[in-house]
Amino acid sequence: MERRRKLIAGNWKMYKTLPQAMELVMELKRLVAMVRGCDVAVIPPALLVEPVGRRLADSGIGVGVQNIHDTGFGAFTGELSADMLPGVGATYCIAGHSERRKIFGESDETVNRKVKAILSVGVTPILCIGETLQEREDGRTFPVLRRQMEVGTSGLSEEQVGRIVLAYEPVWAIGTGRNATAEQVAEVHGWLRGWLGDHFGGQVAEMVRIQYGGSVKPDNAAQLMHTPNVDGALVGGASLDAASFAQIVKASL
Questions:
Q1: Which residues contact 97 (CB under 8 A, 6 or more apart)?
Q2: Which H or E element spans position 126?
Q3: How far apart are CA 215 and CA 21, in angstroms?
Q4: Of 97, 99, 106, 189, catalytic
Q5: What pLDDT is stored for residue 3 in this prediction?
Q6: 50, 113, 171, 203: least CB-packed within 10 angstroms?
Q7: Is residue 166 within a helix (H) or strand (E), and if so which, with residue range?
Q8: What pLDDT digit, counting tens, does each position of 118-164 carry?
Q9: Catalytic-role residue among 99, 131, 169, 189
Q10: Is 199 a catalytic residue?
């Protein structure tokens, strides 16, 4: 079976004006132009997706959306429908990011509906899962992940699950100054690979890319990206600087 290509995706969160975004992606194009062997994507705020996508059209760098509503078109002022994603060139869409779960109260069931909506329009969901510091300290990491996986993939076929990217983001290691060790990451990613195999078969388990997302930076990227069962990174703050993000991309090769 063909080796899984790593996916390095930069989640800009609620940062960058349009001029700042254009400057960043032009520099990123220059820095990763010769990179081969992994997939690269940026995930800007919704207002910037279409112009960023146009600027990156000839680069091989993909573009994603940070969030959608869990239904189709409707009277939901301020929300986005999955039906809008292909038309702006989006190839990825995040579902269940820890900030959406914590700040906006999204449940596993809501995340599952979003994953289904994203898949229905031919876009790749990046399904985020992860435990809080309290849950890890209480020894509940794997029960929490099990529920997130069971509900997040509920009602999906093997083919659909094979199209998902998983992003393990331990909430306690995001913007806290605390980092997960390579051993902790390997343990969780190995468990996730096994869970996929048990529920959807070995072929699907081998197809699914499992990213790590928890304060990935240039100085820890090489070790994390070469940890067993790590198929890339969902990068936060470091993706806001083209040079730092490019270093992470290159460290994954």
A1: 11, 66, 67, 128, 169
A2: strand 124-129
A3: 21
A4: 97
A5: 59
A6: 203
A7: strand 165-168
A8: 999 999 999 999 999 999 999 999 999 999 999 999 999 999 999 99
A9: 169
A10: no
